Amino acid sequence: MLNCDKRGIILFIVISVIMVVVVFTAVVLRIISNHTRLTHHQVSRIQAQYAAKAGVIYALDKLRRKDAAWTAFPVTKRMCKTVWAPDCSTPDILEYSLPKSVLYVDITAYDPAAVWPNNAVSGCQKVSAKATFTYN
After folding, report:
1. Residues 111-132 pLDDT 10s
2. 55-114 confidence digits (pLDDT tens)
3. How many CA atoms lie within 13 A of 51 on its CB side?
4. pLDDT-above-70 percentage for the chain
5. Which pLDDT belongs to residue 110?
6. Is the C or the N end of the chain the one with fewer CB within 10 Å?
7. Are the C-beta atoms of 129 and 108 separated by less than 8 Å?
């Protein structure tokens, strides 16, 4: 027959082990949750970076083809996925393949004479793009 003191010690040990397991589980779940959020943010940022690069390539192609809409410098165009996207009621470029996280991409082509006043670099064009993105 067990002594009452021994049963109290075993109960204390079991409760202590359960508490350690609960705290350890909470810490692991918190770490997993943080990593999921950080990974989602990283993916959204990379998608926005590639969308901006696509905007630069699009602008360079339009400039190479001497598109009339891209000849009045500086020219700024907004690329959006849909017309219902935030800040995109009148997009200049509709690009349905933009990821959900990218709200819009602003593309700007500058006058070469304003960028290089000494005309040291002839036949070159400066183009920049900025992607605005979000994540939930």
Report:
1. 776 666 665 566 677 788 888 8
2. 999 988 988 888 888 877 788 898 988 777 677 777 888 888 888 888 889 998 887 766
3. 28
4. 85
5. 83
6. N
7. yes
